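Example for tutorial group B:
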């Protein structure tokens, strides 16, 4: 009996991550990315100091609705800058901060559940 949910082939599943890179849906990416269920975008945030509400816009300015945005902060958890939760709420979404590995794993689980999730990921 198969108990893991099937994820449609066209979904952007995070296959692996490592220092400076991600493998998503069998494609390699260098540097920070925003992962949406249907596509991957380059992201211009390389560390926590650059994270600001306007830098989250690419996650929300797509045809794909986002109900939860996961922010992978790199190898360690740190306090997020002020205003980010409010910026996400203004767009009708919740936001959660965690280290990047946890964000990748959580994104995959929520994607498998059919949730409207996105992940903005700073590499390890």
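The residue assignment follows.
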């Amino acid at each position: 009996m198969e108990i893991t949910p099937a994820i449609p082939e066209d979904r952007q599943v995070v296959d692996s991550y490592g220092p400076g890179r991600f493998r998503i849906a069998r494609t390699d990416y260098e540097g920070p990315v925003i992962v949406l269920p249907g596509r991957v975008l380059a992201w211009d945030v390389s560390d926590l100091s650059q994270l600001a509400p306007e830098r989250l816009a690419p996650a929300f300015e797509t045809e794909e609705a986002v109900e939860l945005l996961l922010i992978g902060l790199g190898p360690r958890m740190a306090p997020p800058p002020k205003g980010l939760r409010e910026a996400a709420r203004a767009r009708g979404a919740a936001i959660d901060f965690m280290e990047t590995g946890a964000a990748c794993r959580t994104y995959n689980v929520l994607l498998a559940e059919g949730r409207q999730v996105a992940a903005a990921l700073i590499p390890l």
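The CA atoms of residues 75 and 124 lie 5 Å apart. Compare this with the pattern of hydrophobic and polar residues in the output above.
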